[in-house]
Write a structure and sequence with these properties.
Succinyl-CoA transferase, alpha subunit; NagB/RpiA_transferase-like; 27% strand; eight-stranded mixed β-sheet; Glutaconate Coenzyme A-transferase
């Protein structure tokens, strides 16, 4: 069974083969469930001219936001840009190409790509700027847009727990885009909090089967909170 062991010991090994100009699909939502160490490794490698597909681009100085600092991202495909001033600056200056995509459509683009479905129809975006330049088809009296699926050269995802074969479990809302992203990469790298031996995970609890995962690394996570909201103590 050793040949099925996908655990690697270093971040450089985990991201080996990533080159300039590639497309990277990243799991996460805001700062929740993001593969922090893998993003950091992309920054250290100095890879440039990347197309990155993710719900958003982190925040200033953390998450995918660190890749904007040296302009490593050429194009960002995302549904939300509101928490990153550097992102906004590069977008408005024309330094960064941004393809805004409705959130549900973005999730389905990843899922469809992983399932081998080249395109699909959705009513989301009909009659808005999202529809510009896209094929529209009327089905049963309603207009739908043709949206193309997404695949990447690499997918980087984060899970709570995985075995050495790559079978993994996400925890609560940190699941978000990770299951879809995991299926859509030619090479999928999984960063996890805990690695267990094969057979220790309850099969019915596994969210992403190891067949989709190429490499597994145990990470150390800061888990920043994007916005801290507290309630005043009652007197």
């Amino acid at each position: 069974m050793a040949g099925f062991d996908k655990v690697v010991s270093s971040y450089s090994e985990a991201m080996a083969g990533l080159e300039d100009g590639m497309t990277v699909i990243a799991g996460g939502f805001g700062l929740c469930g993001i593969p922090e160490g893998l993003i950091g490794q992309i920054k250290r490698q100095g890879i440039r001219n990347l197309t990155v597909v993710s719900n958003n681009c982190g925040v200033d100085g953390f998450g995918l936001g660190v890749l904007l600092e040296d302009k490593q991202i050429r194009k960002m495909v995302a549904s939300y840009v509101g928490e990153n001033a550097l992102f906004e600056q590069q977008l408005l200056s024309g330094e960064l190409d941004v393809e805004l995509t409705p959130q549900g459509t973005l999730a389905e683009k990843m899922r469809a790509g992983g399932a081998g479905i080249p395109a699909f129809y959705t009513a989301t975006g009909v009659g808005t700027p999202v529809a510009e330049g896209k094929e529209t088809r009327n089905i049963n009296g309603r207009d739908y847009l043709l949206e193309h699926s997404i695949t990447g050269d690499f997918a980087i995802v984060k899970a709570w727990k995985a075995d050495r074969f790559g079978n993994c479990i996400y925890r609560h809302t940190a699941m978000n885009f990770n299951p879809m992203a995991a299926t859509a990469g030619k090479i999928t790298v999984l960063e996890v909090e805990e690695i267990v031996e094969p057979g220790e995970l309850e099969p019915s609890q596994i969210h992403t089967p190891g067949i989709y995962i190429d490499r597994v690394i145990k990470g150390v996570f800061e888990k920043r909170i994007e916005k801290v909201t507290t309630q005043a103590a009652k007197q």
